[in-house]
Write a structure and sequence with these properties.
This protein is 78% helix and 0% strand. The protein has 332 residues and is mainly α. The protein is globular. About 2% of the residues have low confidence.
Length: 332
């Protein structure tokens, strides 16, 4: 990636972090008190994400290695993964920052088509694992807890929502997703002119990217399901974060409870995907989730706060990694 582009991503991330810190809706005194209360659990939460990002990077590595050994060293993929997620955290719309960055960093190693298809396929896998996680959590709730009429409606909505999107993604894996998205863009007012021009200009490249996406599902099923397993496992491991945080407050919460809390809160937060860091959405999701499990809503607010601090720390780490270890390579 050219240094000018890297500098743009870096400055954008720094500005976003500064804005988030100064618009934090909790007083500095309260944050300090809560962090002191967390004690050694906070470093454990931060270290946990070393493992989670390892699984995320491994899924991308599996995709890149489906037909041959990945030309990108794993430690580079790990670095790009952390920085990519850091940019996603600070970008409204989530996937508008980290994915272009990953494509630009991977392009010198594998070319723009392979970089684009691998990143798009990884993003699809990442999102697909969320839908599987939410759907499996619905069945987990039905198995462990009594269901009221109101709860049944919410669970039915989640189940239907996930099922429809799983079908959509499955078709995308079989036939490709990029051309399909550009066709949708051509029907959206104010965007269709630009999307239509883009799709005509790069139609050959878009079709090539789609063919590479479909190839993984059609011929490299081991890599396909391996990457999906790694991403789904990362979702489960992320629930340990909530288990650690809640153990600061109570020992009455099981790991299954934490899976449900993460599932319901992330589902609610992702419905508000247009907000940077899902401001307000995650806190509301945590509060609703713990309330639904007959826990104090304060537990949800505290959990969301510690999670915010963890995100800010890893955003800073991601931005620092963007500036170090960059080796110039000739673009293919």
């Amino acid at each position: 990636m050219k240094n000018k582009l890297r500098n743009f991503f870096f400055v954008f991330g720094v500005v976003a972090v500064v804005i988030m810190v100064f618009t934090f809706d909790v007083s500095p005194q309260q944050i300090a008190t809560d962090l002191k209360r967390a004690g050694y659990y906070l470093p454990l939460v931060l270290l946990l994400w070393v493992v989670i990002y390892f699984f995320n990077a491994s899924a991308w590595h599996v995709i890149l290695s489906s037909d041959k050994k990945s030309p990108i060293p794993f430690h580079k993929l790990y670095k790009f993964t952390i920085t990519g997620f850091a940019l996603n955290y600070v970008t409204p719309g989530g996937l508008m920052g980290g994915e272009p960055y990953r494509i630009m960093e991977a392009t010198p190693y594998v070319g723009v088509d392979k970089a684009s298809s691998s990143v798009i396929l990884y993003v699809m896998m990442h999102i697909f694992s969320h839908f599987l996680f939410w759907m499996s959590s619905v069945f987990l709730f039905l198995f462990y807890y009594p269901v009221s009429k109101a709860t049944a409606i919410i669970l039915a909505f989640m189940l239907l929502f996930c099922f429809l999107f799983i079908l959509l993604f499955w078709q995308g894996y079989k036939k490709g997703f990029v051309v399909f998205l550009t066709r949708i863009g051509c029907e959206i007012p104010y965007l269709k002119k630009y999307v239509s021009h883009f799709s005509k200009k790069y139609s050959e490249n878009l079709e090539k990217i789609d063919s590479q996406i479909a190839l993984l599902h059609r011929q490299e099923k081991r890599s396909f399901y391996g990457a999906l397993f790694l991403e789904y496992t990362a979702r489960i491991i992320s629930c340990v974060e909530v288990w650690l945080i809640l153990h600061i407050l109570t020992h009455q919460v099981s790991f299954f409870d934490c899976i449900l809390i993460v599932s319901f809160s992330s589902f609610f937060a992702n419905l508000l995907f247009f907000l940077p860091m899902q401001v307000g959405g995650r806190e509301g999701g945590f509060a609703l989730a713990v309330h639904g499990l007959s826990l104090s809503g304060a537990y949800g607010v505290y959990t969301a706060l510690i999670t915010r601090v963890r995100e800010l720390v890893w955003i800073v780490i991601g931005l620092i990694l963007m500036r170090i270890g960059n080796i110039k390579k000739n673009t293919k």
